[in-house]
Every structure is written in C-alpha cells, then in structure tokens.
Known about the structure:
By secondary structure, the protein is an alpha+beta fold. It has 14 helices and twelve strands. The strands form two sheets. Strands 1-2-3-7-4-6-5 form a seven-stranded mixed beta sheet, with helices on both faces. The chain has a five-stranded mixed beta sheet with strand order 8-12-9-11-10, with helices on both faces. Strand 10 and strand 11 (about 315-320) form a beta hairpin. Helix 8 packs across helix 11, helix 9 runs antiparallel to helix 10 (about 325-345) and helix 11 packs antiparallel against helix 13 (about 385-395).
Amino acid sequence: MTVHLTPPSDAQAAVNVAERTSPGGLSYWLVEDATVPLVAMRFGFRGAGAVQDPAAVPGVANLAAALLDEGAGPHDAIAFQTLLEDNAIRLSFDASHDTFSGELTVVSDTVALGAELLALALTQPRFDADAIERAQGQMMAGLRRELNDPEAIASRLSARTLFPDHPYGRPVRGTLESVPQIEAQHLRDLHARALGRDRLHIAIVGDITSGDADALVDQAFGGLRETADLADVLPTEVPTGALTQQTEAVAQTAIRFALPGLERDDPEFLTAFVMNHILGGGTFSSRLFKQVREARGLTYSVYSYITARDYAPFLGGGASTRPERAQETLDVIRQVIDEFVSEGPTAEELQAAKDFLIGSYPLRFDSSQKIAQQLVGMQLEDMPISYMTERAGLIEAITVDDIRRVADRLLKAPLSLVIVGQPLS
Length: 425
C-alpha cells in the first residue's frame, strides 16, 4: 500500500509512504527520496524498554542502549566507533519505559556497511567490562548532577507517587544505587529476551530503492530471534487526589500534577489532545500560561501534556515558582482547570488551536530523520499510514462541545500532586 501525504501548508514536502514486507518476512514503511544521497532508518521494539528492567535493578535497558554501539562481534569499542566515524555512519540506541529504539543514518554508498554494523550491534553486542564501567561512570555523573535539581527530584518523585507498584515508578536511567549493580549478565539477559522480531517496527527514508531497502531490513534484523520473551506488565491507572511533598532547601518550588488520561485508541484521544493544547500544551497561548505567567507573573513556565503510555495513559503538568508563591500558583492552576471544565474553550481558542496543530504538522516531516521517527511512532501507536492525510480533517471537525465533553471526562477529578521545595502554606 502506498499513501501520498501532502502537508496542507507545504506541497513541496510531499511524503509518499509505502508499506512493504521484506523477503525475510519483516514489515516496514518506506519513503523513497533521492533528493539527498542519505538513508535514515528508525526502529523500535515495542514493550522492550525499561518496563523489562529487573525490579531491584532499574537502568538496565538504558545502559544496554548506551552499550550496543560500544563494541560488537569482532570489534571492540574503539574499533567499532572508528568504523562508524570513518564511514560517516550514525548509529545510536535509546530506551524509554515502553520501547527500546534505535536509528541508523548513512550516506547512500555505505548502506551495506551500516546494515552490517547494525546487525552486529543487535545480535552480537560485547558488553565488555571496560565499556560497561565507562558508561556507568557517565550515568552516575548525570545522576549526581540532578541531586539538587528540584525539577529532576520532582520527576522521580512523581513517578513513585503515580506508579508506586509498577515499572513506571522506576526511573529509566536507574538510580545512584542501582546503576553500579548492573552487571554484564543483566545486559545479556535483557538483550536476549527483549529484542524479538515480533516486537519490531521499522521506517526507512531516503535515497534507496525498494529492493535495496528489503535487503537492508533483512541484513540488519534477520538475525534476531523470532519472538521476544517479555515479562508480563499489567495496566495501571494514575490515582486521583494523591499528594506527596518533599522539603528541599532550593530556590524554586517544583509543582507536578496528574490525572488519568485516555488510551491512544480511544475515539476521543485526538479531542483530548486538542483540549490539552488549549489548556496547557500551547507554549505561549494556553490558558495556564496566560493566567499563571502573563496575568500574575507567578512562574516562567507552566504546562500540561497528554501521553498515551502503553500501560497507563495520563494527563500531566507542572510549574516551578518561588517558594512564597507556590501555594498561589497551585491555586491558580486549579482555578484555571475548574473554569475550563465549567465553561469550556471559546470558539476563538479552539480555532487557534486547530490552526496551530494543523499548520505545524508538516514541520515533523522536514528531514529524513524526522520522517522516519514519525513513521515509527505511528506504527508503535497502531496508527495507519492514512492517519497523516486524515489528521487535519479529524482536528478540523472537533467542536467546542466535543472539548467540553472530554474536559468533563478528564479534568473533574482531584489532581494528584507532587511538591518539591518548601512546604506549601
């Protein structure tokens, strides 16, 4: 199947996406574009992220992602990195809670070498002791830098508050206690269990024919096990009305709030996405920004977001402010949310949100790497290729009453709160 995407504000940026299956049986999405002699590939293993870390040793998936390109097959870390650098090949991996991901960017005449190195990294990682020690040191340094950062403290405390008995409550990057405990066997165990072809989603964009793309996919991923052996992770729900405060001698008090959200396949998810843009997602146009920052000068930044995590979708938000104004800031946030539920958005607010969300969408497709990232993200969320062309119409059809209905559904419950800094008055 091929779908031609023409973003409404930039016809030159047309994206033609083909859904293909390689001779080895791997499905992927392809955009052929010979404009630049470059090939970008993004891939993700759904369910293979930090939720698969051992409960007592968070940070394993993150450390594994940092080490896959630090030596593989016959090449130690220096030899592997030298091959990448000498051939202008960019290869990297990362882990979120839900997904283990990677990207490969090569010039057109080094596709075969890029595929070979990617295959080695995925199937024969070395996890050498010196590479592990070096990566652990870098991660520990990053974690130590965050010890007195109220934003970082609030993020970790929020996770523990919202998901106390769930893998989402454990930090993806691990802790000062867990990272030194990670051994090569932890990494090998996760690698052996998590990276299965049945969890894999791939997008390729650039100067490559469909036949060469088929070969690239089979060479890079054909050696993976057919089926991953993932630990079961149960769905959970963000609590309402929870409150956690941590006193810290810091100049700013960090406020975090959260409410249960909507699954990505919920028919009203896109309406909730637009609602959130009006409430706190639009950086300089949202209700929260106008009331908390512009009208009262309480904070530099206030925001909300909606996220459809695999096991617990939620709506979150936050702000940081001077300790003596933290209670006032929280009161205004609550007031804005209450008024949004009772009154809904104005027609002007809704139209401005539509114009921004539709008009800015092509910016997600202005480079090969961005296109590949968007296409893999859609696959991980079970979105069809046609969503790209249908999205503008779906947003345009949303009404003020739709927003009011979703706001009533999502925003009426008491906020769960995390406060880091001086206690509130």
